[in-house]
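Narrative of activities, Objective 1.

The group set out to show that a structural description can be obtained from nothing but a protein's sequence at a throughput compatible with the screening campaign. Below is one input-output pair from the validation batch, recorded exactly as produced.
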Amino acid sequence: MSTVIPPTKRQCERCGRSEVWDEDQSTWVVAVENGTKEPGQPHCLHEWDINGSYNPFEGHS
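Output recorded for this entry:
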């Protein structure tokens, strides 16, 4: 049986915005680096770095 493993972090390839998955809020939130939120460009049409090399399955045969 396969288990789906969702991503826990992502970064926009256009503006550099970094986000992490917040389990408590069940949504993506802006990542905090060195005590500061790094929002990138909030109005960017984000192109996340999750692509074909990301494998969301564990134990898939």
